[in-house]
Amino acid sequence: MLYKGRILGLEVQEVGLDNGRQAVREIIRHGPAVAVLAQRPDGRFLFVRQFRKPVEQALLEVVAGNREPGEEAETCARRELEEETGHRPQRILPLGFIYPSPGYVDERIDLFFAEVDDKPGPARPDEDENLTVVLLTRTQVEAQLRDGGICDAKTLAAWLRYELRRDGAGALSP
User: Fold this and answer.
1) Residue 44 burial by CB count (10 A; 0-12/13-18/19+): exposed, middle or buried?
2) Cα angle for residues 125, 150, 83 (degrees, 5° grid)
3) Residue range 105-160, pLDDT digits in tens
4) HSE of 88, CA atoms in CB hemisphere, 13 A
5) What phi and psi, each to the nearest 5 degrees, are found at residue 111?
6) Catalytic pick from 127, 129, 142, 163?
7) Residue 159: how many CB atoms within 10 A of its CB?
8) Structural domains of the chain, ranges and CATH numbers in brackets
9) Per residue in 82-93, pLDDT tens?
10) C-alpha–C-alpha distance, residues 9 and 6, integer Å
11) Gap between the Cα atoms of 63 and 11, Å rounded
12) Which of 47-60 are b and which e, b meaning 16 or more Cβ less than 10 Å from the residue's Cβ?
């Protein structure tokens, strides 16, 4: 490992290709994470807006976070939702998982949908997080998606997986 940091490591590997040639692969090793699309009883969806240094802009995203060592994905999803928004999930459903950029990072993000309580308690974001909770109606979310206001991959994937699980009446199938 060339570098080992707080949340990721960097390896450089020489790999054999099918054509017999050798190639170099730079691989970021990243622990598992979760992303949660949450909805309040009034139908509005919870997002967070936070500045992301690598892209030098604030992004509108679903609640997300890294799993602690040994922590189950659903446990992490519940914890992150409460930490970042103050809302407690009343029901949480898995939506599958994604590899956000498998060409160079092994990160796996488990996706969830959560129905949350109406009144949040105090949010407790990590000390290095500065985020704002944003509530959006379905129409507002769809406008953000259409207009490029939501461009974060995990958020796009969570919304797609959510939409694919909805039945004609708008309820989620198990």
Assistant:
1) middle
2) 15
3) 999 999 999 999 998 887 787 777 789 999 999 999 999 999 999 999 999 999 99
4) 4
5) -100, 140
6) 127
7) 21
8) 31-165 (3.90.79.10)
9) 999 999 999 999
10) 8
11) 29
12) bbeeeeeeeeeebb
Q: Is 127 known to be catalytic? A: yes
32's tokens: 């598992």
- Residues recorded for the chain: 174
Is residue 95 exposed (0-12), middle (13-18) or buried (19+ Cβ within 10 Å)? buried
User: What crossing angle do the helices spanning 138-147 and 153-165 adopt, rounded to 10°?
Assistant: 130
Residue-by-residue DSSP string for the chain: --EE-SSEEEEEEEEE-TTS-EEEEEEEEE--EEEEEEE-TTSPEEEEEEEEGGGTEEEEE-EEEEPPTT--HHHHHHHHHHHHHSPPEEEEEEEEEE-S-TTTB---EEEEEEEE-SS-------TT--EEEEEE-HHHHHHHHHHTS---HHHHHHHHHHHHHB-TTSPBP-
Written as six digits, the tokens of 94 are 């898995």
Please give the structure tokens belonging to residue 104.
């160079």
